[in-house]
Amino acid sequence: MNKLKTSLLTVALALGWSVCATATAQAEGIVTGGKTGTYYKIGENLRDLVDSRVDVQITGGSWTNVEAMSRTKGVTLATVQSDVYAAFVQMRDDKSVPEAMRKEYRDLLANLRVFMPLYPEEVHFLVRKDEPIEYIHQIKGKAIWMDMEKSGTYLTARNIYGKLFQERPNTVQPFMNPTATGEDEGTKRRRSALMALSDPTYYSTYPRIDVMVVVGGQPLALLEKNAPANLKLLKFDPNHAASTALLQEYKQAEIKKASYPVLHMEGGGSPSLAVDSYLITANFADQGRNEFIQTFAAKFCTKFDALSSQGHPKWKSLTWQPGQALPSLAAGWKYSDYAKDVLNRCNSNQTLRLPSKQNTTTPATPSPASNACSAQDRFAGLCR
After folding, report:
1. How many angstroms separate the CA atoms of 125 and 135, rounded?
2. Is the pLDDT of residue 5 over 90?
3. CA distance linking residue 189 with residue 175, whole number of Å
4. Cα–Cα distance, 218 to 223 (Å, whole number)
């Protein structure tokens, strides 16, 4: 590993890149999620272990992150689920979608690029232990909490439900219990839902929740230490009739008992589904920001050992790791020109040539299109 790190540092220095951030450097925003989610921890790790210029920002999750990456000044990096990004690509390319809506998604995606693949995010389906169901395919008709409408959890949960039952779910609108604690609204909202799920009698003034869905890389801080002891995880059955359709888009995964000692699980873990996640960026009109992405990629390579040993456990299960070629992307996705070369060669002594400056334009901010068939429902195949 020391030899690899020396090689990575040689590449960075050969390119004339500094691997130490300066105190006066411009902050570069990374939009993540709530403080009890894994995305936020990943952002903190990138700031603390890779580049102190990274400004970690709390958001509503993947859907809003894509919008912020395209529209918000100062946002340079974003974490996003693959199914959320795929929904934007599908809306852009689907000719049955109204042209105004297609233009909105074309504008959003015009300059967005993938920095690197991250890791699979497990889909957690939580119910009370006394619920007489054991599998995800048994939640039909239940009152389901899926978080806010533009969160990644919301789209993933609706998509899974739609593929299982070909109908819209009975969703519980998020609410806030004033006794719920947390450093941000998202954390308080999720803890409010956990409280109502665990004891519907005591919290009878709030909407009843039968199933709560949370998407995130295990262990989630929300459930790691504070999960109510009377909850269990629903299991995924790969042999169920609808599982074939689900596995075309999601991966099989196991939520480990060690991740959540308090939750009821049989054996060492609970079979579930997972969705891939990515770190995305853009081709910016400001060449200085493109150069930041290039130097950030070099720093990431040199600091990967520290991320693996000191950061969130998910750094140990990345889809891609230094020393490997970046994997192919789905149709409609593109890697950043400023990161791809560096990441593909980050264990090499070759001197990389800086890409020439590109004339890129910042996507315009379109007005949201109103349509009775929402993007989430259309993506789940529930309407056209």
Report:
1. 9
2. no
3. 6
4. 9
DSSP track, 173-187: PP---TT---SSHHH
Q: Is the dihedral of CA 311, 313, 316, 319 positive or negative?
A: negative
Give bridge partners of residue 212 from the DSSP assignment.
126, 145
Q: Which two tokens stand for residue 338?
A: 């400023």
Residues counted in the chain: 384
pLDDT in tens, 284-333: 989 999 999 999 999 999 999 999 999 999 999 998 988 899 999 987 78
Give the Cα separation of 125 and 164 in Å (integer): 14
What confidence score (pLDDT) does residue 379 get?
Answer: 42
Above pLDDT 70, what percent of the chain? 84
With CA atoms as reference, report the closest residue to 75 among 91, 90, 58. Answer: 58
The model carries a pTM of 0.80
Structure tokens at 344: 């593909």
The model's confidence at residue 11, banded by pLDDT at 50, 70 and 90, is: very low
Q: Which residue has the tokens 């200085």?
A: 288
At CA 224, angle to CA 222 and CA 226, rounded to 5?
A: 65
All domains in the chain, ordered by first residue: 2-118+278-344 (3.40.190.10), 121-276 (3.40.190.10)
> Apex CA 97: angle with CA 93 and CA 99, to 5°?
85
Please identify which residue in the block is written with the tokens 């196991």: 254
pLDDT at 34: 87
pLDDT above 80 for 120: yes
Give strand pairing partners of 251.
274
How far lies 9's CA from each of 143, 263, 300, 311, in Å?
A: 53, 43, 11, 20
